[in-house]
Design a protein that fits this description.
With 332 residues, the chain is an alpha+beta fold. The chain has eight helices and 18 strands. Strand 4 and strand 5 form a beta hairpin.
Length: 332
């Protein structure tokens, strides 16, 4: 697959603070890649360096095999979409989208053709004459995306673009954005701290921690085979069982099973631990069952599906078990 972006030996300091110690990363043409991590892990700084809004302290940035490390932002064939939309309030939708084409002196006929195309793609055809303040948050975000797409960039950079929206709208726009990216075949580099967003939208996820890449893989592999304790607890929920200082087992709550303490004739593996149910929390499609393990302050959580044979209650004595293939060894 053709390479579109390559970061080679990238480091970044702000004063005496080393934000990114060293990163190498390659992004393929047409890939939807997400930089995921907690606040302050360096993901937005990395995105801004690709855009040319920040300079790396050392290393090189290649775009479509061209070294663009020292290029100004307007000389890079990338566009960026921000969380706060950054729309011009005195311009209507069409004028906001046209602005970049005017700056690039694109012929008027070509401008109109591209604007019509992106208005159709982003479902904004009926809103072209409205000002930003006359639009909902989701519509404003679509305008920001349309304005970025109209220049036909090689790479679209998105910095938490759905972060300011309510939950249901965010879910809807996740699907729209992924379908748009697929339809255009464009390279998307997406920054978020929302694990669910990353898992549902990405072809590939780069999990970052303290300026370093913890794991770089497909959503499926990162969820089911986390490489470290950090990844396992940052992406979804996990239970951890410390076998010794070097060996830790991570088990997802949906893979952790509960049985009665005095169960006879086990038809599953014998319980690894015993404990007491301390809480059961209703979550719509599941109950979360919290169990405090005997001789320990550790509490583990298991998901209880409503078609299970038994629903557990606080103070019940239980055993905890799992299938060997569902336990993943992770780095501390």
């Amino acid at each position: 697959m053709k390479e579109m972006v390559r970061l080679q030996g990238i480091t970044k300091k702000f004063g005496n603070n080393l934000i990114i110690p060293h990163i190498d990363l390659t992004i393929a043409d047409g890939e939807f890649i997400t930089l995921l991590g907690p606040s302050g892990c360096g993901k937005t700084t990395l995105l801004r360096m690709i855009a040319g809004l920040e300079e790396p302290t050392s290393g090189q940035i290649f775009l479509d095999n061209e070294d663009v490390t020292t290029f100004a932002p307007y000389k890079r064939d990338v566009n960026m979409v921000f969380q706060n939309y950054a729309l011009f309030p005195h311009m209507n939708v069409e004028e906001n989208i046209r602005f970049g084409l005017l700056m690039k002196k694109v012929p008027k006929e070509k401008q109109n053709e591209r604007i019509d195309q992106v208005l159709y793609l982003t479902q904004l055809e009926d809103f072209r004459a409205r000002r930003p303040q006359q639009l909902s948050g989701g519509q404003q975000q679509r305008v920001a995306i349309a304005r970025a797409l109209v220049n036909n960039p090689k790479v679209l950079l998105l910095d938490e673009p759905l972060g300011a929206l309510d939950y249901q709208l965010r879910k809807n726009l996740q699907l729209e954005l992924k379908n748009l990216q697929r339809g255009l075949g464009l390279t998307f580099v997406y920054v978020t701290h929302d694990q669910e967003e990353a898992l549902t939208m990405s072809d590939r996820i780069v999990v970052m921690n303290a300026g370093r890449i913890e794991q770089d893989s497909t959503p499926d592999n990162i969820y089911h085979n986390p490489s470290s304790r950090f990844v396992a607890q940052f992406i979804g929920e996990s239970n951890f069982f410390d076998l010794d200082k070097e060996n830790i087992l991570a088990i997802r709550p949906e893979k952790l099973n509960i049985c009665e303490e005095e169960e006879e004739n086990f038809v599953h593996p014998l319980p690894e631990y015993y404990g007491t149910v301390v809480d059961v929390v209703f979550y719509g499609t599941i109950d979360k069952v919290f169990v405090r393990l005997d001789n320990s302050n550790q509490t583990v959580v298991a998901y209880q599906y409503f078609d299970d044979v038994k629903r557990w209650c606080p103070d019940e004595r239980v055993g905890i078990w799992w299938y060997p293939q569902d336990a993943v060894g992770v780095k501390p």
